[in-house]
Structure formats: structure tokens, C-alpha cells
Amino acid sequence: MTPDTLDLNGKVAVITGSGKETGIGACIASTLSRNGAFVVINYVSHASASRATGVAESIREQGGKATVVQADVSTPEGSKELVKKTLDVFGTGNIDIIVNNAAGGTPHGALQATRDSLDTIFSTIVYAPIFLLQAAVPHMPRGSRIINIGSIASKLGMASTAIYGAAKTAQDSLTYSLAMELGRSRGITVNTVSPGPVVGPDDKSGGKAGNDR
Ligand SMILES: NC(=O)c1ccc[n+]([C@@H]2O[C@H](COP(=O)([O-])OP(=O)(O)OC[C@H]3O[C@@H](n4cnc5c(N)ncnc54)[C@H](OP(=O)(O)O)[C@@H]3O)[C@@H](O)[C@H]2O)c1
């Protein structure tokens, strides 16, 4: 199946951390939109505001329906705000697709970890998907999808990404358990897509190494 043969007409999709035009999140949003979904572009940093607006405009120019919501998904309040604004803007009671793409922090090994750096990485990669599902699940009908963007770093044991890899492993574990919890009780599927290195939005390696932390 090619990416453009899905029938997502009228489905509402929230893609966290999708405000940078060359990032994985913006590409996912654009693809979901091409297949008919209404998409929510989410960002957190003020510095990314104009880029997020640009992502949504570009989707609208191609005939899609997109809105932008600034929210910190690593807090319960931010996740609730994202869900509320999504429902308000699209005038719907449903959220059909959540893509947990946001990830914060910078690369470092365990010896460089600080309380703050651990908090940033774990709160965006592990806590955020939990807070967002708590806010969104009451509005997700049977057949809805939650997709976590993982990383091969969860399995490779790379020294320079020890903390990030550990957080992605915790996220993988959540996927397995939530697939059981939400699949059985509510008919919501939960999956992880684990990319290898991808040239990210602020890649400084000239595309050689990807931007995976
Ligand atoms: N690029 C790679 O090589 C690669 C490989 C494997 C997996 N991945 C995964 O793919 C995903 C996207 O990676 P990427 O490289 O395209 O982009 P990225 O540079 O990791 O950017 C992710 C986005 O997350 C957003 N974000 C951070 N904290 C947030 C928060 N608290 N609330 C809402 N948004 C927040 C940031 O928004 P602001 O711009 O507003 O700060 C940022 O634009 C990540 O989960 C990453 O771990 C990437």
C-alpha cells in the first residue's frame, strides 16, 4: 500500500512536536493530510511559532485542513489544552489519531546527565504520551490509532544516547502494555514506529548522521 491510499477523510489527527517543516512530525502531518485527515500541528517553543504556522499553511495550500496549537505535552495541563483546542477548532467530539512524535533534550551519555536533562527527556518521551492519552482517550472512538515515534536507539545500546535510548525503551514498553489495555477495552490500537537516523529539522551534520539526539 502506498502512503496515499489510506482513507482518512474527516479523521482528526494530532501530531505532537510537528512544527518544524523538515521534521519527521511535519512530514507525518503532511502525509496524513494528503490522505484526508484534519491535522493538528503542535509545537512548544516560541521560536518555532512561525515555522509551525508555515507547516499548517503549506498543508492548507495543498487543500488540507490544518490548525496549529502551542502546548507543552509533557504536562497534564498542556496535553489537556491540546485536546480541548483540537476539539474546539474542528468542532468535533472525536480525535482519531495521535502521533507521539515530540522529543526534547540534547544528546548525552549517563555521566553527563543532570536532573534537568533527565526530566526533559523522560517527560517528553515517556510522560507526554501518558498525559496525552489520559486527556484524549475519552474522545477516541473504537478504531482509533495511537502511534509512538520510537527509535532504534532503544535497542542499540549507543553510549552517546544512553538516556534517550532508555526513554525510548520505556516508551516501547508502554506501547506493548497500552496495546493490551486500550486495545481490549476500547478498540484503540497502539503501535511504535522506530526510525533509524533521519535528517532532522536542525541537523548540523550535513545529512551524514541524521539527527537522532
Ligand atoms: N531524526 C532522527 O534521526 C530520528 C531517528 C529516530 C527517531 N527519531 C524520533 O522522531 C521524532 C522526531 O524527531 P525529529 O528529529 O524529526 O525532530 P526533533 O528535532 O527531535 O524535534 C521534535 C519536536 O519536538 C517538539 N517538542 C519538544 N518538547 C516538546 C513538548 N514538551 N511539547 C510539545 N512539543 C515538544 C519540539 O518542538 P519545538 O520546535 O516547539 O521546540 C521539536 O520540534 C522524535 O521522537 C525523535 O526521537 C528521530
Automatic annotation (TrEMBL):
Pfam families: adh_short_C2. One of its GO terms (molecular function) is oxidoreductase activity. The lineage of its organism: Eukaryota, Fungi, Dikarya, Ascomycota, Pezizomycotina. It comes from the Eukaryota. Keywords: Oxidoreductase. It comes from Penicillium steckii. Residues 201-213 have a biased composition (Basic and acidic residues). Belongs to the short-chain dehydrogenases/reductases (SDR) family. SUPFAM superfamilies: NAD(P)-binding Rossmann-fold domains (SSF51735). This is Uncharacterized protein. Residues 191-213 are annotated as: Disordered. InterPro entries: NAD(P)-bd_dom_sf, SDR_fam.
